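Title: [Solved] Elongation factor Ts 3D structure

Original question kept below for reference.
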Amino acid sequence: MAKISAAQVKELRDKTGVGMMDAKKALVEAEGDMAKAVDVLREKGVAKAEKKSGRVAAEGMAAVAIHGDHAAIVEVNSETDFVASSDPFKDLIAKVADQIALEAPKDLDAALALKTEKGTINDDIIETTQVTGEKVSLRRFKVIEKQANQNFGAYIHNGGQIGALVVLDGADEATAKDVAMHVAAINPEYVSRDQVPAETLAHEKEVLVKEALNEGKPEKIVEKMVEGRLNKWLAEISLDDQEFVKDSDQTVSHYVESKGGKVNTFVRFEVGEGIEKQTGNFVDEIMSQIKN
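Solution (posted by the thread starter after getting help):
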C-alpha cells in the first residue's frame, strides 16, 4: 500500500473541498495517484448526491443574471439556510444564472446539460452537494428576451429569499428596478386586470355575491356592493393598479407612465414557495448521522 503524506491529503482537499478523511481514503484507494483520487471522489460525489435525492431542499436562493437582451431568474435549493449562505452555494447559483441567461435553455433537463468549466451544470451541482453535504438542486428558472426599446429591472431581497425580474416598454433601467422592488414586496399576480382569467373573475364575483347576501344586504344593492369589492380585489392582485410602494399617492402604472413607459411583464420567485418542508427531531437526525 502506498504511503500517503499529509501534504497529499491537503492538496487533494484544496482541489476538491472534501473532508480530510474522505481525501485520505480516496488517495489510499488510488494508491497515491492524485488524478485517480479526484476521480474516486467525483464518483463518490455522484453516489452521495443520489443518496440524498430523497431529502427535501426547501431553502436556498433566487438570483438574476442579465446579459444584453437576455435575462434569467433562477432558484437553487438546499436543505438549510446555513448552506444557502455559504460561498460554494453562492458561487454555484451565480454561475448557473449566468449560463442560463447566456444560453436560454428550454427546460430543466437542457439547463442541467449546459457546459461549464467542470463539465455541466449538473456536475457543478453534484460537486456542491459533495462539498456542502446537503442536497442541492436547480428547482426552476425563467429566461426573458427583451426588445431594443425595452428595459430590464431586477431586485433581490433578503439575501436571495425573493427575486424579481421586470420588463418595461420604454422608461429606463432605474424605473424598471423600482418596479422590480415593488413586485418583490407586494407580490402581484397579474400585470393588469385584463389578464385575470374569466373563470377566476366569475368565481370571485360568485363568492362576493354570497358574502353580501349572507351579511343580510338587500338584493337591490348587492350588485353595486359586489362591483365595488370586485374592483378593490382586482386592484390588489394587478400590478398596474397597486399603490406604488415608494409613493402611495400613485399607482404603479401611473409611476411608470410618468417615466415614459409601461409594464410589459414580470417574474417573481420566492424561495421554497409551494414546497412542503419536512420537520423532525434535530437531535435524532444528528445521532443518526453519527451512527452512519
